[in-house]
Write a structure and sequence with these properties.
The chain is an alpha/beta fold. The protein has two domains: 177 residues, Response regulator (Rossmann fold, 3-Layer(aba) Sandwich); 144 residues, Response regulator (Rossmann fold). It contains eleven helices and 16 strands. Helix 5 links the parallel strand 6 and strand 7. The relative contact order is 0.16.
Length: 353
């Protein structure tokens, strides 16, 4: 495929224009995720002009900025990365950045010009669920949470959006292993339950809620459609996830090759992140960043310096998770209240300092 750098990392070269991929491929704990993102970026490279170079031998907690400067000095006209909030903060502390830069995570601190954010933060999904449930006529919310950082982040994100949207919080229930805390919950058409808990806790809790209780969650409850028994346990739960997983026959999705060997569901999300990151950085280079993108991770729009992703409304139905508007759904007849309103390429060069 044209567009890949052909020189090896050890070959001395004058600076050449390229797109830099700043990913910690060899870092303990991060390397496997970074390599999947890189796979996704490569999968999206179609009829590209600029080559891709990956800068990988750095520590995201200390030396991301140094690798960034190396990439720019080597001729990078745009940069994808870093991957972690710690790495991104190093770039955010700069007064200016010389080239368009797409960080693969989202932070709240002020950013210099040319630094943009794009990520798969589940907090954004929690806020989207709040808007979706409100649109579907829910007025009161029961939030099921746990004493762990991710559950708290989901809880707070959902509650902030829910209250802003005019919803009322009926109860907050912290699950510590005692299912009796759910004994007095009764279904009501105006009331919904939001799971901020992880997949295992949610699976334990679900049988103790009324079958016809309107229940919502984020993508963390979906581990793939091969796990039919688990999906049956979540029957009727609404959530949001990406078209890459929920609409696999969509032309905008089939335009890109799948990884081989197959990836896990969590890895597929990172692979899709890489695909859309490549598309977004090219939009930044060509001054088309303000154009909405029909991404494989969702509908993407630029909001300030953050590319905001709207995921696909989905639900669990008969052991299978699918888009909420899929034609196979006949749930309205079964649960009328709950569903109311309702390629082979040459590897790019990896540059190591």
């Amino acid at each position: 495929m044209s567009g890949f750098a052909s020189a090896t990392a050890e070959t001395a070269q004058p600076p050449v224009p390229h797109i830099a991929l700043l990913l910690p491929l060899d870092a303990p704990g991060l390397g496997s995720a970074a390599r999947v993102v890189q796979q996704g970026v490569i999968a999206a490279m179609q009829n590209t002009v600029l080559p891709l170079r990956t800068y990988s031998n750095y520590d995201e907690t200390r030396s991301a900025l140094a690798s960034y400067k190396m990439a720019v000095a080597s001729g990078a006209v745009a940069v994808i990365g870093p991957l972690t909030r710690n790495g991104i903060r190093q770039l955010a502390e700069e007064k200016t950045l010389p080239v368009p830069t797409l960080a693969l995570n989202i932070i709240d601190t002020p950013a210099p010009p040319q630094l943009y954010f794009f990520g798969l933060a589940v907090e954004a999904e929690a806020r989207q669920i709040a808007l979706l449930a409100k649109k579907q006529g829910r007025q009161q919310a029961i939030i099921v949470t746990a004493n762990d950082p991710l559950a708290r982040r989901l809880q707070f994100a959902f509650e902030e959006q829910w209250i802003t949207s005019g919803g009322e919080i009926l109860r907050e229930i912290e699950y510590t292993g005692d299912t009796m805390v759910f004994a007095d919950i009764a279904a009501d058409p105006s009331t919904m339950t939001f799971f901020a808990t992880d997949i295992e806790k949610s699976r334990t809790i679900r049988p103790y809620l009324p079958n016809n209780m309107a229940t919502y969650a984020t993508s963390q409850l979906f581990s793939g459609n091969k796990d039919t028994l688990l999906n049956f346990d979540f029957e009727g739960i609404r959530f949001v996830d990406m078209p890459w997983l929920m609409q696999t026959d969509l032309p905008a999705v089939t335009a890109f090759p799948r990884a081989y060997p197959p990836l896990t569901t969590d890895q597929e999300r990172l692979y899709a992140l890489g695909i859309d990151a490549w598309r977004l950085i090219n939009n930044l280079i060509s001054n088309r960043a303000k154009q909405p993108l029909d991404g494989v991770t969702g509908q993407i729009r630029l909001n300030g310096q953050t590319f905001a992703r709207t995921a696909l409304p989905s639900l669990f139905y008969q052991g299978h998770a699918q888009a909420a508007d899929a034609p196979l759904i006949q749930s309205v007849q079964l649960f009328p209240d709950q569903f109311k309103n309702a390629s082979s390429v040459e590897a790019p060069v990896t540059v190591k300092p």
